[in-house]
Write a structure and sequence with these properties.
The protein is α/β, with parallel strands linked by helices. It is about 35% helix and about 20% strand. Helix 11 packs antiparallel against helix 12.
Length: about 675
């Protein structure tokens, strides 16, 4: 994480704007819109005044060093301006110009220009290049070359994005989300999104931080950010886009195609305790929920609406999400029965009909009764009519009841409009100001609740990161297994034959039945290079004659198998080493059933991952069948990890498929290793 101090840049008391074009004039003009009271210094070689402010002919002519500067001139002149600001001790700068690292494919000089820019900046922070700037709505300070829709806030969320247009659009939201800061990171030549977020955590008025992420760079900076946010209790939520094929560059193993880089992003965010969402509306609704409630303590929620259709829609919409609607307890039932009478069937989600509509007192009693302390959040589904065509006064009782129920119980409560447009902004503001979360859209509300409940403490173990090996090659199965065995892996007794004539003799040293494999092939089944359950030396010889190759591996068959796992580790340039655990053998491609973690892992993480698989019921003993040996399975996976941790500079990928699981063992039946020799 950068050691540069960014507080002065993001909470400036003086601003400079370098350039006189339309974008710079917008920046200067916009400084007035949020009531910035500090000094503003336009810099232009010939102008004497810009947008009502006295202009200065050069950086050296300024009366003092600005805390933050917007550089709105061409890329070559930008480098000189950065050097000048650095010389006088400015607090930081926004580099608006493009044509640096993002243009390297078209302009070979772009890389050199970016290096010159960083050299000119020295220890002075710079955002960008190719960066729109930032708005600080808490203090009214901004360097922003366009319109925006923000207002002054006392507290609020911070949003950091690489995309200037997405940032601009977010400022125009009408969802009653209080935005304290919006910052665009641009190329992140010097200051990364993780650095920016860590700096904004220094402002206690920031209630949550949202990150629109295209890719991760300095993973250590992300680890430090997650630790700092957790220590302060400030939740982080990420909208990660740009599914990359980086991790699929190595396509020798099934693991690489199963994991992919997006699985790595999921695993990284989960390891860091950062909630991940998948759409911009959900991103904003999650931030709003976190602003009001903070992280939800569990995924236990309730829903109450005056429509059976809505109650069913809530239940159905939550099916694919990690949310639970616990049955009503005796206290809830008694309170609801007293408020609603005998005509209403009690359940969660609840349809309370319309008997008590317009009766604010009865609605308060019913909603309060549902808000049990064991719940993380109660959803009140209320859709408001169009104010331009309808009378909204009948809905005043719902607003009053929601606020009163919140005041009485102190519980986390949200009023949810099933369609985003059915939550008027003025209603949303009233609710939020009284501690009720106004959520726009039923699907978004449920996704936000699941995300807010998923935030956790980051894994304190640093990620295992090494430089990539040079010229990795495939290591034969027999050698790979032998190496894993030295780290505690269980492998079958075996023998190697250097010719067809030798296979019968080699097989005779083992206990039948045996498996015969031709060596030197990555995927033996696809090449007819493996035969199982051979019961005599003659059968082994006959099978060998049908196979490609001249060297063979003969192994004792594993007895009493229950099922098979794939366990693979691949190097992902973006996220570290990915550990993929999934259904193995012939089921790998059919089920696409896998969980991805990042190294290092411990036994508890492995056990939890196994419970997430579709084949988990088989692992636990399905329909009277014996369960697998969990301890042996964890030992095998940890042994595979141990090999990679000890040889990380050499390993590109390692796959065990299958790992055969029995009631007492976890045996490596096949292994593929690719590493530098």
């Amino acid at each position: 994480m950068s050691s540069r101090r960014l507080d002065r840049l993001f909470r400036p008391k003086s601003l400079a704007v370098i350039g006189g074009g339309a974008w710079c004039r917008q920046v200067i003009g916009r400084t007035k819109s949020l009531g910035f009271s500090g000094a503003v210094y336009p810099i232009h070689p010939t102008a004497t005044e810009i947008e009502g402010f006295r202009a200065y002919s050069s950086i050296s002519a300024l009366p003092d060093a600005p805390d933050a500067a917007f550089i709105g001139i061409n890329r070559h002149s930008t480098i000189d301006a950065v050097a000048g600001l650095n010389t006088i001790g400015a607090g930081g700068a926004i580099c608006f110009a493009s044509g640096f690292a993002e243009a390297m494919a078209e302009d070979v000089s772009a890389a050199s220009l970016q290096a010159d820019l960083l050299s000119a900046a020295g220890h002075m922070p710079i955002l960008g290049p190719n960066c729109y700037g930032f708005i600080n709505a808490l203090d009214g300070a901004m360097l922003w070359p366009d319109q925006h829709g923000l207002i002054r806030e006392d507290t609020g969320v911070a949003i950091i994005t690489q995309s200037s247009n997405i940032a601009l659009n977010i400022t125009m939201q009408s969802r009653a989300l209080p935005v304290a800061y919006i910052v665009t990171a641009g190329n992140q030549a010097q200051i990364t999104q993780a650095d920016i977020a860590a700096a904004l955590l220094n402002d206690p008025r920031v209630t949550a931080i949202g990150l629109h992420i295209e890719g991760f760079s300095d993973l250590r900076a992300w680890e430090a950010l997650a630790a700092k946010a957790n220590a302060q209790g400030t939740p982080l939520v990420a909208l990660k886009v740009g599914k990359s094929d980086q991790a699929q560059a190595a396509t020798v193993t099934h693991t690489a195609s199963l994991a992919g880089s997006d699985a790595g992003a999921d695993a990284l965010l989960c390891r860091l305790g950062i909630a991940r969402v998948h759409s911009l509306p959900t991103f904003l609704e999650t931030l709003k929920l976190l602003h009001v409630t903070g992280r939800l303590p569990s995924n236990r929620i309730a829903s109450i609406s005056c429509s059976g259709g809505e109650a069913a829609l809530v239940a159905d919409s939550a099916v694919s999400r990690n949310l639970t609607f616990p049955p009503l307890n005796d206290t809830q039932r008694a309170g609801l029965a007293a408020a609603l009478g005998p005509m209403v069937g009690l359940a969660n989600p609840l349809d309370y009909h319309t008997y008590i509509w317009r009766d604010a007192g009865a609605m308060t009693a019913a909603w309060s009764a549902m808000m049990d302390p064991s719940l993380a959040l109660t959803l009140l589904v209320v859709d408001f009519p169009r104010g331009d065509r309808c009378d909204m006064s009948d809905w005043d009782s719902a607003i009053e009841a929601a606020i009163a129920a919140k005041a009485q119980t102190g519980a986390n409560v949200a009023m949810v409009a099933s369609l985003p447009e059915l939550m008027p902004e003025e209603v949303a503001l009233t609710l939020r100001q009284n501690g009720v979360v106004p959520l726009c859209g039923l699907d978004e509300a449920l996704a936000a609740a699941a995300a807010a409940a998923s935030i956790s403490k980051p894994n304190p173990q640093p990620l295992f990161l090494t430089d990539a090996p040079s010229n990795p090659v495939i290591i034969g199965e027999a050698t790979a297994k032998a190496r894993l065995a030295t780290f505690g892996a269980d492998v079958p007794p075996h023998a190697i034959a250097d010719s067809i004539a030798d296979v019968a003799m080699a097989a005779s040293t083992l206990r039948f039945p045996v498996a015969l494999k031709a060596l030197g092939l990555a995927h033996k089944s696809e090449h007819g290079a493996v035969t199982l359950n051979l019961r005599t030396p003659e059968a082994v010889t006959t099978a060998a004659k049908t196979m490609p190759g001249e060297r063979f591996l003969i192994e004792e068959m594993v007895q009493d198998p229950i099922t098979e796992l794939l366990v693979g580790i691949t190097r992902d340039p973006a996220h570290g080493f990915l550990l993929t655990i999934g259904a193995g053998g012939t089921l790998t491609e059919i089920l696409q059933d896998s969980v991805t973690l990042l190294l290092p892992v411990d036994a508890a993480s492995i056990e939890h991952a196994l419970t997430q698989l579709k084949i988990a019921p088989i692992l636990g003993g399905y329909r009277g069948q014996p369960p697998i040996d969990i301890a042996a399975t964890c030992t095998a996976i940890l042994a595979i990890q141990s090999y990679v941790l000890a040889n990380g500079d050499a390993v590109e990928e390692l796959e065990v498929n299958p790992l055969i699981l029995t009631p007492t063992r976890a045996v490596i039946a096949d292994a593929l290793l690719r590493e530098s020799p």
